[in-house]
Specification:
The complex is a heterodimer of chains A (301) and B (259). Chain A is mostly helical. Chain A has a domain of 202 residues. Chain A has eleven helices and two strands, in the order H-H-H-H-E-H-H-H-H-E-H-H-H. The radius of gyration of chain A is 19 Å and the shape is globular. By secondary structure, chain B is of the alpha/beta class. In chain B, strand 1 and strand 2 form a beta hairpin. Helix content of chain B is 39%, strand content 25%. Classes of the chains: A mainly alpha (301), B alpha/beta (259). At the A-B interface, helix 5, helix 6 and helix 7 of A face helix 2, helix 3, helix 4 and helix 6 of B.
Amino acid sequence: MKYFLQLVLAGLTKGSIYALIALGYTMVYGIIKLINFAHGEIYMIGAFTALIIGGVLQITTGLPPVTILFISLAAAIFFSAGYGVTMENIAYKPLRKAPRLTALISAIGMSLVLQNYVLLAQTSDFLPFRSMIPNFSFLIPGKSLVTTTQLVIMITTVVVMIFLTILIKFTRMGKAMRATSQDKVMAQLVGIDINKVITFTFAIGSATAAIGGVLIANHMGQINFYIGFLAGIKAFVAAVLGGIGSIPGAVLGSFVLGMAESFGAGYISSAYEDAFAFVILIIILIIKPSGLMGRNEIEKV
Amino acid sequence: MSRIILEIKDFSMVFGGLRAVDHVNIHINDGEIVALIGPNGAGKTTLFNCVTGVYKPSEGDIAVSNPESKVIRTNGMKPNNITELGLARTFQNIRLFSSMTALENVMIGRHPKLQAGIFGAIFRDKSTRTEEKQVVEDSLVILKKLGLKQYANEPASSLSYGAQRRLEIARAMATEPQLLLLDEPAAGMNPQETKELDDTITRIRDKEGITILLIEHDMSLVMSLSERIYVLDYGKLIAEGSPDEVKANPAVIKAYLGE
């Protein structure tokens, strides 16, 4: 029983991280119908920003770890959003009217550029990341089940989800985002500046990915330039699994994926952990090609 | 002499080898109801697309004057900036935001008029809340004017055809236009609905002071509504004048009926 609960909690933790990344994929896809393959790199850059800023602050100042965590998290969000928006401006915006495949290839190129840029600027080695999340004393009795970091990851994800739901459902920008994703020309004709909406979407998507990056770095304790690749692919799988373009779908897909990996690794074999993600993807797409919560697109002929 | 709201001078639109609109001159005065008619493929919708910034005109000038009589050339401007100058339009094939409610569709039209930013949305300070309340109230007023108030919280896609057409007009009105461009507003309507539309358009002009330019194939509606008519055929302007003048014009009869 305890083993089972541990697997559930590990699955939820993984699912949370996937969800934070998958949100960016699905929002960008919803707005400009582009699979932003460089999104995983934004997550990695978030982790590196936190490593550098956090490291410097730990050495030069005597601030408590929690303060450092918040400062480095804010820096990571700021930097990643900046990278996301810049990426959109230089690699996707000029291709707005080009065929979709062109922008997709540009995205793959962007991914390689960012990976190698971090490889050059840092090293190819795994760098140790000292956890900045302190242990909560009330968790000591349940310590064998869940760590403080896991709990923080899950809570943060829930908070981010609630924030995004409010943003999209009720705010002016959210309405503009929904309008843009449904009909770009019409959105402009009611006075919406769609370039602003797209920039904002990239900024928000990158910010949530950065939060994921900082949290996972705290959880795993080490990072390198390559962590964004697999995490990005997995989150992409999660977004497709849930129905790409749908925000609740991305969250659901992420948790399904996290659970599948956790249970697959726990009960079958941990050597095939990564394969479970793709097996689940194939099964679900055979049964429901539009994804768990995806809508069938009606194309006008 | 009243103010000219929209002036189109020597305007052409070329697609590859096709001249969809060929050296056309049109002007719309403040407070008029003007119709643009012509056989299918005459270039009417292309002209609308160029005026609202969906297409970039190939040749000529399109200028809009704002209430302070300042004339602004709009060639190549983005659609959202043209909307801010006070032009709004509807589409021949309905283009509502179908997964949103009727009310949200109208609220979206208020978008450029609002101030609240993202931080206001998060912290929900007093000015944001009052603004949001104001938007909902304004939007409900607009819905009421078009007889759609009872559908406010229905998804746009579940409305009847006639109601969807009226909702398109409501959304366009939410942007507070000085000139409303209607692309075949009566298409697919039954005679009863067309009659109501006639009254609605007249009311929008008389009560709201919004100038109207409409494309329409329903000749009885065109003749009863419009004060001036422009006739396009194969991209060329072949006639212009009052309904009676246009009806009697041999070139128009030829374009519609052949020789």
